[in-house]
Amino acid sequence: MIKYPMSFKVSAESAEGIQTSWESKAQTQSAGIRMSIPPEFEGPGDGFSPEDLYAMALQNCFIATFKVFAEKSRLAYSKLQVATELVVDRNESGRPWMARCVLKVQLEGCTQVENAKRILERTSENCMILNSVKTEKVFEFVVT
């Protein structure tokens, strides 16, 4: 049984300067990931950017949620692919924000096409990270 509330802890440390990369890590992992400011914001782009991680968080929450729903529904498939595009723009107040996230989802090797589509739709409505952000979410589902 899953118990709420839960807590996830991360940490990072960096020297000064926008050209300086840093390491960020989760408390449960021994290795961290290299982070940097992307070239679009005049950084070196030699590591993951916060924008990369934001898009990955949305994408990977979708994948994790789908895998749980598919397994509990006994949905067989050979491969799930998700290609995600995050659009950063300015909001109506002129502030930069994560405006739109397009998730192109392809499910292959599935014989229960209608059931798969229902599970994909259910996933898009029940993913906790996707439900926690103001970013517009657009889903494109292809089941073969």
Query: What is the mean predicted local confidence, pLDDT?
Result: 96
CATH class of the largest domain equals Alpha Beta
**CATH architecture field of the largest domain:** 2-Layer Sandwich
The low-pLDDT segments are none
* CATH homologous superfamily annotation of the largest domain: K homology (KH) domain
Please tally the β strands and state the result: 6
Quote the distance from N terminus to C terminus.
Answer: 34 Å
Q: How are the strands ordered across the major sheet?
A: 1-2-3
Strand content: 25-35%
Cα gyration radius (Å): 18 Å
Overall geometry comes to globular
The helix/strand class is alpha+beta
Describe the protein's architecture and organization.
This protein has two domains: 1-48; 50-143, GMP Synthetase, Chain A, domain 3. The strands form two sheets. Strands 1-2-3 form a three-stranded antiparallel β-sheet, with no helix packed on it. Strand 2 and strand 3 (33-35) form a beta hairpin. The mean pLDDT is 96. It is globular and about 55 Å long. It contains two helices and six strands. With 144 residues, it is of the alpha+beta class.
